[in-house]
Specification:
The structure holds 2 protein chains of 2 kinds. By secondary structure, chain A is an alpha+beta fold. Chain A contains 2 helices and 3 strands; from the N terminus they run E-E-H-E-H. Chain A has a single domain, classed as Phenylacetic acid degradation B (Ubiquitin-like (UB roll)). The longest helix of chain A is centred in the middle third of the chain and has 12 residues. Chain A is elongated, with a radius of gyration of 21 Å. Chain B has 13 helices and 2 strands, in the order H-H-H-H-H-H-H-H-H-H-E-E-H-H-H. The termini of chain B are far apart. The chains are: A alpha+beta, B mainly alpha.
Chain lengths: 94, 325
């Protein structure tokens, strides 16, 4: 019988209050094992103070082919960015 | 380098798709695992990243050889940390290779049965403690030279693995140079050991960059795909120019009578390696080639029960949990 340990995706939160960030993946037999392995593989230099692991098979990703159309709705809404509006210098910082 | 003589695979894809793909690469886009890619790109990268990963793993062996015999507890702890980093680098790279559709077990099997290679440098023995210095200084130094540009490679997972690796690699080179400094400032016997390590490892280190570009038939396609960034000769020259002054600082002599500063080109002229030796090593006929694969085979065989037991334990734990719920 031959079967490989499942693949897990690893997310780590650093010291400075930022969100967990994807750092890579690894193989492990269960969640606890994945956390231990993640500690050894991804935090040898104190890169984080919190680890999330997720079975890679449980991640649903947007389709790369959609790249254009899927994000279209944002294309014509430049007014969502503050730089769209011209505020006279006299008004001061805003 | 860690991936030498990677043959670019021919590609038989729709020319229109190929052109669009090349345009993405030319524009500096990163290619991600689920994006469309030419079959040749996928296969070449799989081989390249796989070989790179194998090199990190096999590269643990020549240094692991000295862990139990390190001269002080501090040196032992440092060497242990370095070797552990190499394992980590191997794991980052295996995961990057796996995104291309090959499994970890398949990669391991291909290393063990010789279908995939590892870097020629690790087929050489580490005979004295000074070799730990020379390996860190020269081998990791050469690796950095190759890996820094690879952070810009076109395949996203490979580039990201390289970013992590490069952050850690500089410690490796510096700890090696630190050992060399200690040796050359020690007794005459220690100085002789340091010189001997340089004598033996200089040419194997130069070989790491691969054969001269004129003989590297596969470079062109890989460069177009941005999975190879610099030519072999260019990197080798850069390595020599950087390393010669460091050797002078140590008071050591580079084992090359032909080494001279060339004022006109602003770099050193040097004698290249004996390439017939390189090809023999790559074929698996290096001084330690058989020993390296045997060690990996033993690790694989002896670890089989651990891999199975962990899976069985996880399945049992899950079953108990489900009953409890």
């Amino acid at each position: 019988m031959k079967s490989e340990w499942p693949l897990w995706e690893v997310f780590i939160r650093g010291q400075h209050g930022l969100s967990h960030r994807h750092v890579g993946s690894l193989h492990a037999t269960d969640a606890e094992h994945a956390i231990q392995n993640a500690r050894d593989v991804y935090t040898r230099r104190k890169e984080g103070i919190s680890i999330w692991v997720v079975p890679a098979a449980h991640i649903t990703a947007s389709s790369p082919d959609d790249k254009g159309a899927f994000y279209d709705p944002a294309d014509d809404k430049v007014y969502r960015h503050p730089s769209f509006f011209n505020i006279p210098d006299d008004v001061g910082a805003m | 380098m860690y991936a030498q003589m990677i043959k670019s695979e021919a590609t038989k894809d729709d020319p229109e798709k190929l052109a669009a793909f090349q345009a993405r690469i030319d524009a500096g886009d990163k290619i991600e695992p689920k994006d469309w890619m030419p079959e040749g790109y996928r296969k070449t990268l799989m081989r390249q990243i796989g070989q790179h990963a194998h090199s990190e793993i096999v590269g643990q062996l020549p240094e692991g050889n000295w862990i139990t015999r390190a001269p002080t507890l501090e040196r032992k702890a440092i060497l242990l940390a370095k070797v552990q980093d190499e394992a980590g680098h191997g794991l980052y790279l295996y995961c990057a290779a796996e995104t291309l559709g090959v499994s970890r077990d398949e990669l391991t099997e291909m290393l063990l049965d010789g279908r995939m290679k590892y870097s020629s440098i690790f087929a050489y023995p580490t005979l004295t403690w000074a070799d730990m210095g020379a390996v860190g200084w020269l081998v990791d130094g050469a690796a950095i030279m190759n890996q820094v540009p690879l952070q810009r490679t076109s395949f996203g997972p490979y580039a990201r693995a390289m970013v992590r690796i490069c952050k850690e690699e500089s410690f490796h080179q510096r700890q090696g140079f630190d050992i060399m400094m200690k040796m050359v400032n020690g007794t005459d016997a220690q100085r002789r050991m340091a010189q001997d390590a340089l004598n033996r490892l200089w040419y194997p280190a130069l070989m790491m960059f691969g054969p001269p570009d004129a003989d590297s038939v596969h470079s062109e396609q890989s460069m177009l795909w941005k999975i190879k960034i610099n030519g072999n000769d260019e990197l080798r020259q850069k390595f020599v120019d950087q390393t010669v002054p460091q050797a002078e600082y140590l008071g050591l002599t580079i084992p090359d009578d032909g080494l001279t500063w060339n004022e006109d080109k602003g770099s050193y002229d040097f004698t290249g390696p004996d390439w017939s030796e390189f090809f023999e090593v790559l074929k698996g006929n290096g001084p330690c080639s058989a020993e390296r694969i045997e060690a990996r085979q033993n690790a694989w065989d002896d670890g089989a029960w651990v891999r199975e037991a962990r899976l069985a334990h996880a399945a049992k734990k899950q079953a108990t949990q489900m009953v409890a719920e």
